């Protein structure tokens, strides 16, 4: 059988098996191993490539950033910083129509800068923001929608685990990706706030219940608010300021951030010995899972190189004389379609090794391409039938009166807003690259 045909069959089987619920690392490893065996006709070659993938894929210095930022994010989650951030943001927006919704977006943006995970943001703010939004008279659909929509900021505003993962797989500077994510992340947060304001003005019924309670005046003084914000701001300055100021590398920033988060959690008396053990074991679980994914990704990339499938696709696109705009559109549509059935990491693992050689041949800036990819992939967190962020919210909410359909409908304005911001970043790359 032709190697490219074997590669295509393997790709189709990967999507099918992942959709059936089999772990993506297992799928990539097994199918890549079998496909390599079939292409070379020698099981020893497949075994050698697998051993090489295991040996070399985790030796990169940049890999050390993963367990450190995971530990930092988990320590921040148990320290109560999420609630402090939400309280301060609520005070800042308390006199604005739709202010609590905007406060949720603002708090998620700040929390993203010290947590790095959309799923963690969705989990934390489901418990913090949704009950308070509904108590103040916002509709359940809007309440869960604004939390789901703003939670995606966690994978764009640095330090983002998805940006780290993209950087390792694509061999792109993680520091440059962090820098490039700042302006798009702030732009997306601002666009979310604008959408909330427009929804209230155009159709208040989508946002407010018939009996809309007025937001109570906060008893938090400006001094208390600044005091609550001080630990959060300090951590952001230490980690991101250190990276952008050239004081230390992203890996070193992860170590400093994890230590600072540990001190913060201890000072706030939110971290018990049992809680610390949970943080450490959870960090181990997440790191081990990501390690398996990275090993599988390297094996998959080796298989694709042997199958010559990326070269075949590149030649086909060249013969078809597609413009770069058409190529990019095809890629983004593929991401959006896969986003309805696969999670973010699966999409990156499957598509990036296929598309990266084609994009590099076009002279594409891979930092800009990474941000475009992350935004497109994040839209999948909000779209049915998978919508991972939606399922996380449903699980944490535990409210039978709010269905999955309600959450998906509530996220639609935010998913459309993300499409608009994605279009802006595609048309104006300077938004991404201005700070790099």
Automatic annotation (TrEMBL):
GO cellular component, one term: plasma membrane
Family stated for the protein in its record: Belongs to the TRAP transporter large permease family.
Protein name as catalogued: TRAP transporter large permease protein
Signal peptide: none
Topology relative to the membrane: Multi-pass membrane protein
Described purpose of this protein according to its UniProt entry: Part of the tripartite ATP-independent periplasmic (TRAP) transport system.
Claim: Transmembrane is one of the keywords in the record: yes
GO molecular function, one term: transmembrane transporter activity
Primary site of residence: membrane
Quaternary organization: The complex comprises the extracytoplasmic solute receptor protein and the two transmembrane proteins.
Superkingdom, natural source: Bacteria
Keyword flag Cell inner membrane: yes
TM regions (residue ranges): 6-39, 60-82, 102-130, 142-169, 181-200, 221-241, 247-267, 279-302, 322-355, 367-393, 413-435
Location(s) in or outside the cell: Cell inner membrane
Matches recorded under InterPro entries: DctM, TRAP_DctM
Keywords linked to the UniProt accession: Cell inner membrane, Cell membrane, Membrane, Transmembrane, Transmembrane helix, Transport
Domain TRAP C4-dicarboxylate transport system permease DctM subunit residue range list: 12-429
One Pfam family cited in the UniProt record for this chain: DctM
NCBIfam families found in the cross-reference section: dctM (TIGR00786)
């Amino acid at each position: 059988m032709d190697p490219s045909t074997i590669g295509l069959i393997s790709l189709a089987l990967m999507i099918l098996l992942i959709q059936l619920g089999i772990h993506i690392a297992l799928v990539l490893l097994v199918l890549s191993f079998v496909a390599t065996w079939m292409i070379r006709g020698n099981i020893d070659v497949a075994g050698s490539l697998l051993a090489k993938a295991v040996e070399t894929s985790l030796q990169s210095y940049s890999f050390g950033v993963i367990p450190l930022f995971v530990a930092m994010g988990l320590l921040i989650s148990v320290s109560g910083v999420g609630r402090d951030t939400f309280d301060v943001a609520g005070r800042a927006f308390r006199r604005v129509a739709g202010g609590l919704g905007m406060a949720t977006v603002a708090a998620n943006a700040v929390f993203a800068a010290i947590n790095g995970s959309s799923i963690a943001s969705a989990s934390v703010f489901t418990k913090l923001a949704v009950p308070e939004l509904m108590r103040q008279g916002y509709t359940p659909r809007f309440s869960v929608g604004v939390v789901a929509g703003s939670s995606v900021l966690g994978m764009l505003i640095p330090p983002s685990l998805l940006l780290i993962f993209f950087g390792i797989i694509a061999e792109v500077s993680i520091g440059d990706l962090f820098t490039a994510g700042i302006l798009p992340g702030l732009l997306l947060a601002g666009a979310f706030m604008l959408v909330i304001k427009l929804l209230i003005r155009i159709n208040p019924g989508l946002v407010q219940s018939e009996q809309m309670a007025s937001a109570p005046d906060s008893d938090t003084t400006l001094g208390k608010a600044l005091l609550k914000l001080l630990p959060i701001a300090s951590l952001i300055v230490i980690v991101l300021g250190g990276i952008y100021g050239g004081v230390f590398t992203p890996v070193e920033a992860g170590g400093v951030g994890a230590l600072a988060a540990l001190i913060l959690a201890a000072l706030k008396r939110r971290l018990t010995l049992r809680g610390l053990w949970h943080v450490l074991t959870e960090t181990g679980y997440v790191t081990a899972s990501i390690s398996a994914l990275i090993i599988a990704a390297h094996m998959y990339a080796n298989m694709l190189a042997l199958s010559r499938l990326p070269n075949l696709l590149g030649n086909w696109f060249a013969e078809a004389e597609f413009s770069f705009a058409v190529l990019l559109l095809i890629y983004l549509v593929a991401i959006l379609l896969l986003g309805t059935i696969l999670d973010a990491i699966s999409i990156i693992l499957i598509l990036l090794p296929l598309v990266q050689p084609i994009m590099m041949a076009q002279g594409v800036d891979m930092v800009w391409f990474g941000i475009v990819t992350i935004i497109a992939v994040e839209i999948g967190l909000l779209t049915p039938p998978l919508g991972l962020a939606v399922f996380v919210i449903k699980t944490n909410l535990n409210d039978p009166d709010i269905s999955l359909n309600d959450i998906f409908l509530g996220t639609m304005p935010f998913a459309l807003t993300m499409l608009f911001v994605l279009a802006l970043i595609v048309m104006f790359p300077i938004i991404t690259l201005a700070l790099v």
